[in-house]
Structure formats: C-alpha cells, structure tokens
Design brief:
This protein is mainly alpha-helical. Helix content is 67%, strand content 0%. The longest helix is centred in the middle third of the chain and has 26 residues. The mean pLDDT is 81.
C-alpha cells in the first residue's frame, strides 16, 4: 500500500475538511444518480 501511495504515511497530509468535502461530493453524486435511475426506469423508491 505504501508503494501505491507513493511514500511514507503522514496522517496530517489530509485534513478533516478535505475528507468531509470529498464524502459530501460522493453523497451528492450518489443521490443524483439514484434519482435519475429511478426516474428513467419508472421505478418506485
């Protein structure tokens, strides 16, 4: 895993705000995708 990451592990490399923003972006994308899926397929939630 360290070779893939590209170097030594530094827990301070990414801040909490960056993680929360990335998760928020993923959540919004998932919500929009699910809504489009149900709308296009005529499915009920």
């Amino acid at each position: 895993m360290l070779a893939w990451h590209g170097g030594p592990y530094d827990p301070d490399d990414m801040g909490e705000a960056e993680i929360v923003a990335a998760l928020g972006k993923l959540a919004r994308r998932r919500t929009l995708g699910r809504a489009a899926y149900f709308k296009s397929a005529g499915r009920q939630k």
